[in-house]
Amino acid sequence: MSEPLDPGGTIGILGGGQLGRMLSVAAARLGFRSHVYDPGPEPAASHVAHRTTTADYGDVSALAKFAESVDVITFEFENVPSETLDLLEGHCPIRPNRRALAVSQDRLHEKRFLRDLGLVTAPFAPVEAVTDLDGAIRATGLPAVLKTRRFGYDGKGQVHIGSSDNPAAKLAGIEGSPAILEGFVEFSREVSVIAARGLNGRISCFDPGENVHRDGILRTTAVPARLGSTERTEAALLAGRILNALDYVGILGVELFVTPSGLVVNEIAPRVHNSGHWTQNGCFIDQFEQHIRAIAGWPLGDGRRHSDVVMENLIGDDVDRLPDLLEEPGIAIHMYGKADVRPGRKMGHVNRILRSA
Amino acid sequence: MSEPLDPGGTIGILGGGQLGRMLSVAAARLGFRSHVYDPGPEPAASHVAHRTTTADYGDVSALAKFAESVDVITFEFENVPSETLDLLEGHCPIRPNRRALAVSQDRLHEKRFLRDLGLVTAPFAPVEAVTDLDGAIRATGLPAVLKTRRFGYDGKGQVHIGSSDNPAAKLAGIEGSPAILEGFVEFSREVSVIAARGLNGRISCFDPGENVHRDGILRTTAVPARLGSTERTEAALLAGRILNALDYVGILGVELFVTPSGLVVNEIAPRVHNSGHWTQNGCFIDQFEQHIRAIAGWPLGDGRRHSDVVMENLIGDDVDRLPDLLEEPGIAIHMYGKADVRPGRKMGHVNRILRSA
Description:
Two copies of one chain form a homodimer.
Chain A: E1 10-14, H1 18-29, E2 33-38, E3 51-54, H2 60-68, E4 72-75, H3 82-88, H4 98-105, H5 107-116, E5 124-127, H6 133-140, E6 144-148, E7 158-161, H7 167-173, E8 179-183, E9 189-197, E10 203-205, E11 209-214, E12 217-223, H8 229-245, E13 250-259, E14 262-269, H9 279-282, H10 287-295, E15 307-315, H11 322-327, E16 331-335, E17 346-356
Parallel strand pairs in A: 1-2, 1-4, 2-3
Antiparallel strand pairs in A: 5-8, 6-7, 6-8, 9-10, 9-11, 9-13, 11-12, 12-15, 13-14, 15-17, 16-17
């Protein structure tokens, strides 16, 4: 499918969480239908999707039916199993492509890919077994962070190793090895660039946002980020280099550390990204619509920023603050429609509009 | 229901066209579910609604089931049959209320209601039979417009009477009398105010927009409207007077003629309004979300305008221009998901963002 998808066409979305939900809404705004595929009962996206399939990612028959009912497939999470993709890819295009998924599914592959592109990352070394630890620590120094290569998110699958720790015990403590050891980067702040690339190869970056994490989970993103004009340009150029190298189509999130010697790439996510939620109330066209435009083969939209925004995640019982939040001037509320409040669960977010840009 | 509706609650929407569709999306954004009721097959709103009932507005059993499944009922069109409302109102609140509907369903009632509030309207007179015509013409002068009292929209059910016309023949030509004869108002432009009133009685008006019609159908709305500060204040005050008089909850559209001697009220619509679509890309909180907040008993949101916008309706084969529109900078596309293109059918709209305010 190299022609633009006509309105009325159907976007397939793997994963029905809040990202799939907001992608569904953006698809509808452009006149598309959405078909969400998720293993869980009543996923958040099912409230707004035109159609929902509830089946496992290994269900051959359900996957085939899903693929036949859609015109293009995208996903809200990077850990889509390869076997799922094997089954889907004969039927219709998967955007972003499998290479982007493969690179970002494995922290070691991702770091090597970025380094080979000439970008700066934290020092890193693979750790497949306890015998690799000494060499890895020599490469990264201490303190360092030991991470599973796959399936980590929101700080899960990570342990900190200090100079007084027993590295072997730490390795035993994380499940899901093989692992990667990553050295620390001294940084003044973390920013992210939400970048889009269209099917025609054109690229558009949203303004960088400045992120604050707590307990490994993103709490706030503020735009504009405190960056100089050189850093801003550097951020857009490196995002462009990644997008082009992957022949990428859609939205890519790039997390960056700001250091005195320049920008260091922390990680990339081949999907719409929590740190891009501010675009819903800060830009003419937001990240969700930009992603749908790209994967539908449409020209990218105008992602200019019209306002300064601080996005704040509502996590767990943060939702109890809703009555107060609703009274705040200059606030936009985005709830995900999740019934059960659990600690650490993203229930919604708010965008505080500080002023018109 | 005087308490705010909790997220997870269900909004019932009578009518599944584009307005119901955009209301559904706004409801989802705030964490609500939506249940759309429409007699037609696969209404536009069904693509994004959590649930859809396809049944006639006179289907007692379907209406009862619908009402039992929702927490509050609203509507996308003013011509909801009274019998439908009779069946629904025992079950849950209808917002805006029935009085607002009754007033706006009948042009004569509406004009009298506005006049009794001290607002200025075009001269008017009821025409129930051909014998009323002479007196009516003496009241309004000629030229005048003869309109059915009920069920007119987009210029339907209206005929122009000039001084050389035979009024009786014109009356015979419109179906659905009783009718109303309305005199002409010399106006420089038409503007509309989209006004919201919350369950707590607080009122918030969006900036007035300036409307251009063609063939009786709205083509464009531009903000800011060309109005002086006195006219702006007058517009908000008269909208507030209407809202308070009706003990109104939700969004009300007020169409106004701008004349040298002040603002003349053309008509009111007890629902989200086509001339308020610009708010989607010009304001922090748009008219659809403002309506959902109001009927859910939530505080109104911040409807400040951040950008200058011109909204243009895509009517009939205007959609053929989509490829060009997609290439325009500063444009946001909103498609309604309608499969069949027909002349005069509203297929979508675009908001051109001219500059940040």
